[in-house]
Design brief:
- The protein has about 250 residues and is α/β, with parallel strands linked by helices.
- It has one domain (about 1-240): NAD(P)-binding Rossmann-like Domain (Rossmann fold, 3-Layer(aba) Sandwich), CATH 3.40.50.720.
- The chain is about 40% helix and about 15% strand.
- It contains seven helices and nine strands.
- It has helices at about 1-20, 35-45, 80-90, 105-110, 125-140, 170-180, 220-240, and strands spanning about 25-30, 50-55, 95-100, 120, 140-145, 160, 190-195, 200-205, 210-215.
- It has a seven-stranded mixed beta sheet with strand order 3-2-1-4-5-7-6, sandwiched between helices. A two-stranded antiparallel sheet has the order 8-9.
- β1 (about 25-30), α2 (about 35-45) and β2 (about 50-55) form a beta-alpha-beta unit.
- α1 packs across α7 (about 220-240), α2 packs parallel to α3 and α2 (about 35-45) packs across α7 (about 220-240).
- The chain starts with a helix and ends in an 8-residue tail after the last helix.
Length: about 250
Amino acid sequence: MEAGLHTRTAILVKDEGLARLGGAHVLLAGVGGVGGFAAEALARAGIGRLTLVDHDIVAPTDLNRQLPSTLDTMGQKKVEVLGRRIASIHPACRLTLIDRFITASTIPELLDTDRPDWLIDAIDSLNSKVGLLIAARERGIRVVSSMGAGGRLDPTRLEVGDLMDSSICPLAREVRRRLHRRGQGRGIVAVWSTESPAAPLPPEPTPTGRPRAVNGTISYLPALFGMTLAGLVIQGVLRSGKSGNESG
């Protein structure tokens, strides 16, 4: 069955490409609307090792857009649901599931315990997001980062490029500002939308105690963000000639 998983991919990337994908380790920070679809795309492409980090559980309001969310998985940990799904698709994938909210104090351990080749940033907590991006850059870990996918409907407005070239997106603007304040500049690849977001509902408490604005969401936009992030990583691994940090 595992051979069947790679049959169509091998037509595109050949055995050498499959070997590169199989030798890569990707850490996904956040496996909700964006990160869940990114994780599955990586697994189906044959990425050999995935580390999934998320503290959240599946909730009814996730049903409209999140891959781990079904009526049968309500109340379960997202990393565990997605881990089971990936194992049923790509059994040879080495999975590390971390049930943790990413904070400044947990970032060093997260990146240093078993350093990944690539990081997909799919979180929206600003302090955690900025801290994670800076820590990854300091360690030479390649990063692709998602900006805001909520409050939008138009799939044709996605852009990919250097984060410092992003526009319109309020999340991207604040991330840029905080990175500049900490002496960071160009070099982070990001995905954002140039569609002006709809206004959210007022902030509500969360399980972590952080009040958060409630954004409107649609089924396909977070998925499109996640698939785009996964595609960037897969192409990067294939171009590298070696997996992740070993390349020049």
